[in-house]
Amino acid sequence: MGFNCGIVGLPNVGKSTLFNALTSTIAAQAANFPFCTIEPNTGRVAVPDSRLDKLVELVNPKNVVPTQLEFVDIAGLVKGASKGEGLGNQFLANIREVDAIIHVLRCFEDENITHVEGSVDPIRDAEIVETELMIADLESLEKRFDQTNKKAKGGDKEAITRLAVMTPVMEALKAGKPARVAAPDVSNKDAAREYKMLQLLTAKPVLYVCNVDEDSAATGNKFSEQVFAKAQAEGASAVIISAAIESEVAQLESAEEKKEFLSALGLEETGLAKIIRAGYNLLGLETYFTAGPKEVRAWTFVKGSKAPQCAGIIHSDFERGFIRAETISYEDYIKFGGEQACKEAGKMRSEGKEYVVQDGDLLNFLFNV
To answer: What is the DSSP letter of 204?
Structure first.
C-alpha cells in the first residue's frame, strides 16, 4: 500500500524539476515554458526508512522491499483554469485522482526563468491555484444541490445526510475557504462517507513546498517565511527544498557522496525525505514490518488501523481468515537482536482482532481460510 501525491502549481515553479529529482528519472521534461508537462507523469520511489536499514543489517534477508510513494507531475495551472483556460479541465481532472496535493511554490528569484505572473509572490501564486480549485468545487456542488434538496424534501435518508454535508461546505466555498474547513466529524460515518463521495478538490490535504535557491536551502528566505506563516494559519504543513539541489543529488551514485554533498550545503537530509515525512503526517500514515530470512518488507497503513485491516494489506485472505497477530515492537526487535531472542525474553505478544497496530511493529499474521 502506498499513497498518491499530485505535484501542482503555476507553470515554471519547479514542479517537473522536483519530480525528476524525486524519481531520479527524466520522464517529465523540465523546460522554461508553460505547459511543458502535458500528460501527468507518474513515478514511484522507495520510501527511505532507517528502521528498515537496521532490520536488514540484523536479519540479512535475500530480498528487501521498502514501501513506496507515488508522485504525479501535473500540468501547470493558470488563472481561469476552472473555466477551461490553459490546460484547466485536464488539470482539474488529474488532481481529482490524487490523495493529497503537494503545492510547489516558487520562492526564488531568477531573471532567466520567466514567471507566468511576471513577478515572484508565492502567496499570490498559492491563492490563484486555491481559487480555481474552490470555483470548480462550488460549481460541482451547485449542479447537484437542487436535485439533492428535492430528494431530501421527499424523505430520502441519503439525500438528507448529503444535504447536511453539502450546505456548510458550499457556505465555506462562497466565503473563499476550502471545503476541508467544513468537513464533517469522522465519527459521523454516514456524513464522512457522503463528504468523501463528493470528490471535492479542496477537501484534499495540502503540503506547501517552498522551492528556494541553493543558498537558501538550509535556512529559507523571505518568501518561504511567508508560506510558513500561511501554512500555520491554515493548520497546514510546509517544507523547504531546493529543486536544483535535489536534481544534483539525484545524479550522485553512492549514499556517501550524497551525504557529503548535502553536508557541504548545511543540509542533513534530502528534500525527498522531508516531503515523505510531511506527507505521511498529512495523510496519517504509519509503517509496520515483516521480517524473515527470505524477505524484510515495509508496509504502509493508515494510523489507527486494527490488526485484521493491516493483515489485509498483504492479502485479502489474511484479513478474512484472521486469527491473531504475533507482534514485536521495533525497539524490542533491535534491542534483543531478532525474533527468537524476543520470544525468549517474553517480548513477543499475541494480539487479537481489536489490536490497534503501532508504528514500527513487526508482525506475523496467523490466519485460516
So the answer is: S
Distance CA 252, CA 263 (A): 14
Q: How many residues does this entry show for the chain? A: 369
Answer yes or no: is pLDDT of 38 > 60: no
The helices-and-strands tally (H runs, E runs) of the chain is 14, 12
> Phi/psi of residue 323, each to 5°?
-110, -60
Residue 244 and residue 212: Cα distance in Å, rounded? 9
Assigned C-alpha cell, 106: 516558487
pTM value is: 0.81
> Is residue 52 within 8 Å of residue 291, measured between CB atoms?
no
Neighbours of 198 (CB within 10 A): 16
Q: How high is the pLDDT of residue 275?
A: 86
Strands of the sheet with 68-73, listed across from one edge: 41-46, 68-73, 4-8, 100-106, 206-211, 237-241
Grid coordinates given for 227: 508560506
C-alpha–C-alpha distance, residues 162 and 198, integer Å: 9
- DSSP assignment of 40-58, as one string? PEEEEEEPP-HHHHHHHHH
Model confidence over 152-169: pLDDT tens digits? 999 999 999 999 999 999
